[in-house]
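Notes on consecutive records. When two proteins share a document, each keeps its own sequence and its own token line. Never mix them. Below: protein one.
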Amino acid sequence: MLLAVSSILFALMFLGVPIAIALSLAAVGGLTFSDANLPLTVVVQRYFTAVDSFPLLAIPFFMLAGELMMVGTMAQRITNMAYACVGWLRGGLAQVSTLASMFFAGISGSGAADTAAVGKMMIPAMEKKGYDKGFAASTVATAGTIAVVIPPSIPMIVYGVTAGVSIGALFTAGIIPGILIGLSIMALNYYTARKKGYDTEGGKFEIITFRKALKEGIWALFLPIIIIGGIRTGIFTPTESAAIAAAYALIIGMFVYKDLKIKHLPQVLLQAGITTAMVIFIIAAANVFGWLLTAEQVPQKLAAMITNFTDNKYFILLLINMVLFVTGCFLNASAAITILAPLFLPLVTGVGIDPVFFGLIMVVNLALGLITPPVGLDLFIVQGIANIPLDQLIRAILPFILVLTIDLMLITYIPQISMWLPSVLGP
């Protein structure tokens, strides 16, 4: 049965069928081949069971908050703040792109949204400054992966719901790894800028420019602090924090910056609704697929097979990372988490690995899927903005994939990178 289901899924993906539909049809095929003689109405029931979850309400609210923040001058203010901080460094515009993505990561939780917002502003500016088009697009695409690591993160919410662990703890665990990834990208930017002679004029940090940018962008930068601070102090839950974030973005846009108008709201709500529907549909379909695997006792068989081979948790983490990396090349992060978390959790908890720590590893690993072919979403977003051939873009992004892979290994084998902050702040 497992072979039949996998064959159906990969055949449909090869034909270009949307992932949610491919997962659903593969599940239907699995039920057909199963010996359990379950009715196909189970598929519909599992759809509703998967999304009938209060914590998942955080997804539409964070999507709405991100859309509201992207309207008007909000994105430009955040970029100006990033420019004031690092624009004077070697490879300044590349560094600005990365830091701006880190700022946006604390607002939307969506890699695609961050990549599109930063890419539209920074890729043309980098090209005008003489940067190679492939390097410019690769920098923005790779920095967009930080959005699913630094909280709020949609994949973290999905993992928290799927694995039954604290979303607040996951958010806290993602802060330092997200900063590490951002600094690693900036280090590669600096090396490449020196090697290829970008921004040779240099500059220096100007406190006056910084103060002005901070004054203009401070209200937008408060949002991540409100989200994390409110969750960690127990003032509100992650779901409530998402609703507060949306309300905050609406108030700041309409009454402080005054560039969000009533006429913008229909389009903002429509776009947030479309994006949310896509994510929720994928989660529902993946839940059906994952439920089928669980019903066939695949997690137990997988755990037994691996533990019979080795019980070394470090080697097990390496094997899981390899599986996740390949999976991320083909599946959306939310779908991969919904399917694979129930498969791997019995195994990792059995060898003493913290579920929160494992969730962080899953999220960081699957973030790489945003920039790896054949379905890397960030790749196709920057390809459209930069108007660059895909093969040229893939060659340019390979050094960034290597850097992020090194970061993944550090996060995997030095647990303190992710777990120190949650241990200090508490569960």
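Protein two starts on the next line and is unrelated to protein one.
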Amino acid sequence: MMFVGNLAIDDGIQILHAQQEIPSYAKWGSLAVRKTKERYPDADIVDYLYIGKENGTKISTEKFKLWLRRGGKEFGVFVDIEFETDSEKLVDIKFRETDR
């Protein structure tokens, strides 16, 4: 289970502690975790960071950084989730690995 502020994410399931609001990016964070697990099935996600949102008139992007461990190696993966600003329809998910 990972904790992001007041949000706990366990296998893509969001658990909200009593009397706390769900952040606006929570659904995108769950998607980032789920898609990263699909892309790296042999790695464990050991950390999660919400970077922020880029608001566009037509397309917006939610940005995350996940830290993974595979075997004895750790690495980061930036996950950018693009969606239609008005409808929130998913457009694309981009992954970029980093050693930092």
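For the record: The chain has a mean pLDDT of 86.
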